[in-house]
C-alpha cells in the first residue's frame, strides 16, 4: 500500500497539549493514562490518517514531549504553565539557600540548648552526690537472723540493695547464698560461740558493737519440730539475744530490736484452743516489751500470710502458697509479700515508723504494708 505523508503537528515549547485542541481526525492512545488531560512524561502517541480523503489507512509513530499532570485535576479547564528549566533551577538553588540559612540560624540555638542540658545534668549530679554524702552519715548497720528463711532472705536481699543500709551482719547456722561487700556472716555455733544462740558471749557482743538494730527473723513452723524445740527457738533464743544486745545502745542512740512475730499472736493469757505459735510468740512479745529502756527499744511486727519471692517459693509448702494466693484475692489485708515485709522491717530498723506501734509495741499486717509504701517513697526521693 502506498504510504502518504502525514502533516506534522507543531507544538510550541512549554505549551500544554489538550485533547480537545487536537484535530478531529487524530486519535491519541497515551500510555500510561495517569491524567485525564496530560501524559506524565515523554509518551508514545499513535496518529492515524484514516480520515484523510486521499490517503489509505497507515500508521506512523511519533514522540511528543507532554507536560507533567496538574496536581489539581479537579479543575480541567484551568490552564497549566509548567516551569521553564531556568526557573526550576533557580527555585532549586533558592530552596538550598533557604535550607542553609535555616541551619545557620538554628544551629547556635540548638547548641545553646545542648549546653544548657549538659550544665543542668552536671548540676543534678552534684546535688545527688551531695545528697548521697548527707545520706551516708545517716546509714544504718543491722544484725539479721533467719537470713535463709522466707522473710529473712527477703530482708537480706533488700538490705544489701538499700542505700540506707551501710552493713549487714548475719548470725546463722549456715551462710546465705548471696555475697556482698556489705555482708558479714557469723556462723553459730562456732569456736567463738560454742553454745550457738543459747548464749551470746561477751566477745561476740563486742564484735557486734557499732550496729544500730537487729531484725530478728529467726523462726520455724510448729509443724516441723516438737513443742520443746519450738519453745527454745521461738522464746529462749530471742530473750537470750535481747539480753545480750541491750548493752549495744546509748541514751542518745538506743539500740532497736525488730522482732518478727505473726498475725494471731496474743499477749494475753492463752486459752484452751490458742495455737502453740501464738502462745510462744506472745510470751516472747511480753518479755521484749518489758525489757524496753531508754537505750533499748523494741517493736513487734505481726505479718499475715507471707507471699514468698519467686526464688524462694520452692521452699514454701505448696498448700501454703495456694492458700496465700487465694487470700490475696478474697482477703488482701491478711497477706503481705516478703519484699514488702522486708522493707517495713528495714524502715523500722532505720528508726522510722515507730509511731505506728500500738501501746503493746505491736504493728499489725496493715500497718506493715503502709510502712513498706512509706519506705518505697523515701527511697524514691
Please give the order of strands in the largest beta sheet. Answer: 5-4-3-6-7-8-11
Question: What is the tally of helical segments?
Answer: 8
H and E string: EEHEHEEHEHEHEEHEHEH
**CATH architectural name of the largest domain:** 3-Layer(aba) Sandwich
Q: Would you tell me which CATH topology of the largest domain applies?
A: Rossmann fold
Summed up, the domain count is: 3
The fraction of residues assigned to DSSP E strands is 5-15%
In whole angstroms, how far apart are the ends? 98 Å
Which CATH first-tier class of the largest domain would you pick?
Answer: Alpha Beta
CATH homologous group name of the largest domain? NAD(P)-binding Rossmann-like Domain
Number of strands: 11
By secondary-structure content and strand pairing, the structural class works out as: alpha/beta
Round the mean pLDDT to the nearest integer and report it.
75
Radius of gyration: 44 Å
Overall morphology: elongated
pLDDT < 50 runs, ≥5 residues:
1-19, 24-67, 70-78, 118-137
Q: The biggest beta sheet, please? A: 7 strands, parallel
Helical content stands at 25-40%
InterPro entries: NAD(P)-bd_dom, NAD(P)-bd_dom_sf
Organism: Cutaneotrichosporon spelunceum
Protein name: NAD(P)-binding domain-containing protein
Pfam family, one: NAD_binding_10
Amino acid at each position: 500500500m502506498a504510504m502518504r505523508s502525514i502533516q506534522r503537528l507543531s507544538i510550541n515549547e512549554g505549551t500544554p497539549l489538550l485533547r480537545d485542541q487536537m484535530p478531529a481526525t487524530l486519535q491519541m492512545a497515551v500510555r500510561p493514562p495517569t491524567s485525564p488531560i496530560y501524559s506524565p512524561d515523554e509518551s508514545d502517541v499513535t496518529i492515524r490518517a484514516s480520515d484523510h480523503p486521499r490517503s489509505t489507512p497507515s500508521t506512523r509513530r511519533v514522540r511528543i514531549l507532554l507536560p507533567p499532570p496538574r496536581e489539581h485535576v479537579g479543575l480541567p479547564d484551568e490552564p497549566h504553565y509548567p516551569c521553564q528549566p531556568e526557573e526550576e533551577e533557580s527555585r532549586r538553588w533558592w530552596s538550598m539557600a533557604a535550607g542553609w540559612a535555616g541551619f545557620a540560624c538554628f544551629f547556635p540555638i540548638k547548641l545553646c540548648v545542648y549546653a544548657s542540658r549538659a550544665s543542668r545534668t552536671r548540676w543534678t549530679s552534684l546535688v545527688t552526690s551531695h545528697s548521697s554524702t548527707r545520706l551516708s552519715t545517716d546509714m544504718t548497720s543491722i544484725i539479721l537472723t533467719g537470713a535463709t528463711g522466707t522473710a529473712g532472705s527477703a530482708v537480706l536481699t533488700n538490705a544489701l540493695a538499700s542505700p540506707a543500709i551501710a552493713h549487714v551482719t548475719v548470725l546463722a547456722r549456715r551462710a546465705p547464698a548471696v555475697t556482698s561487700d556489705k555482708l558479714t556472716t557469723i556462723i553459730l555455733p562456732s569456736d567463738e560461740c560454742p553454745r550457738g544462740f543459747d548464749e551470746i558471749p561477751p566477745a561476740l557482743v563486742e564484735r557486734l558493737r557499732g550496729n544500730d538494730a537487729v531484725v530478728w527473723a529467726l523462726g520455724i513452723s510448729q509443724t516441723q519440730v516438737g513443742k520443746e524445740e519450738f519453745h527454745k527457738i521461738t522464746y529462749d533464743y530471742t530473750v537470750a539475744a535481747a539480753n545480750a544486745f541491750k548493752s549495744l545502745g546509748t541514751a542518745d542512740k538506743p539500740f532497736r530490736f525488730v522482732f518478727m512475730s505473726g498475725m494471731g499472736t496474743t499477749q494475753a493469757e492463752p486459752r484452751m484452743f490458742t495455737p502453740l505459735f501464738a502462745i510462744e510468740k506472745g510470751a516472747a512479745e511480753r518479755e521484749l516489751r518489758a525489757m524496753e529502756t531508754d537505750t533499748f527499744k523494741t517493736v513487734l511486727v505481726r505479718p499475715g500470710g507471707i507471699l514468698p519471692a519467686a526464688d524462694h517459693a520452692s521452699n514454701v509448702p505448696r498448700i501454703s502458697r495456694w492458700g496465700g494466693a487465694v487470700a490475696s484475692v478474697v482477703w488482701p489485708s491478711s497477706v503481705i509479700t516478703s519484699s514488702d515485709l522486708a522493707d517495713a522491717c528495714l524502715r523500722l530498723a532505720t528508726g522510722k515508723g515507730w509511731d505506728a506501734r500500738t501501746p503493746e509495741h505491736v504493728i499489725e499486717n496493715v500497718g506493715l504494708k503502709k510502712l513498706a509504701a512509706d519506705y518505697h517513697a523515701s527511697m524514691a526521693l
